[in-house]
Amino acid sequence: MSDSVNSKQEDRRDFLKAGGLVAGITLAPGLLFYGVAQSRAPEEGVSSRQRWGMLIDTTKCADGCNDCVTACNTENGLSGKTGPQDSQWIRKLNVKDLHTGYVQSLPMMCQHCENPPCVDVCPTGASTKRADGIVLVDRHACIGCRYCMMACPYKARSFVHEPLHDQKPDVPRGKGCVESCTFCVQRVDKGEQPACVEACDAKGHKAMVFGDLKDPQSAISRALKSTDSVEVRADLALGTGVRYQGI
Question: How do 103-109 and 208-212 pair as beta strands?
């Protein structure tokens, strides 16, 4: 083999080594950023002995009230814009009973299903359900195919179209990724309530109850035992973690 060929192969090996180093440097900030976020919510502390859920009393949810939406946007670093290309993790809807004409306002977010269709269709495993029932998207595994958005019957997921700035350090987001309500997992894993629930209580509405569905003594379990509630699209048998009262 000629010296010129040997030289070219050595140059190629050096280039590939340099490329690997650059790739490592490029990936490191994202990996470290993700690591910091996850260190606040270690997976090893998650147990199937819990199942987080939410009960929403629509009779206390006033038309035009957006306190829960505002709190979600502030907590998770969302813009608050409601255009077709903007992220909305929780949105207010008006639902109408076609038989009586009765209209009721309610917040709609990821329902954190027991059998989430978003997880079933995800080709990379980016959509996952934790042992405690919280459904999440790993932005490092998400390829932006949006199959999960098509599979979700609640239209609860958003796609990030534009670069993001001034992000919250414990709520990593990324352009080209799908995202949705996380039940404010960064708060729940520290023993706190989701931001929407906290804001609703602070405003005196008290329309939202969050807690462990498997704990018979939790406030949500007691409320579900004493109150009729429904799942949105119960016919799909998804086993939603979010239940509604008054619809």
Answer: unpaired
Type and span of the H or E element at 107: strand 103-109
Confidence tier at 199 by pLDDT (50, 70, 90)? very high
Of 53, 68, 49, nearest in space to 222 by CA: 53
Amino acid at 37: A
Q: Which residue has the tokens 């809807």?
A: 93
Q: Give the integer Cα–Cα distance in Å for 225 and 219.
A: 10
Instruction: For 87-120, write each residue's pLDDT tens digit.
Output: 999 999 988 888 898 888 899 999 999 999 999 9
The stretches of the chain forming alpha helices (DSSP H) are 3-39, 67-76, 117-121, 147-151, 185-188, 195-202, 219-226
Residue with tokens 């029932």: 133
pLDDT digits (tens, 9 = 90+) for 132-172: 999 999 999 999 999 999 999 999 999 999 999 889 999 99
* Tens-digit pLDDT profile for residues 123-137: 999 999 999 999 999
Task: Please say whether the dihedral angle defined by the alpha carbons of residues 126, 129, 130 and 134, taken in this order, is positive or negative.
Answer: positive
For 10-61, give the DSSP string: HHHHHHHHHHHHHHHHHHHHHHHHHHHHHHTS-GGG--TT--EEEEEEGGGS
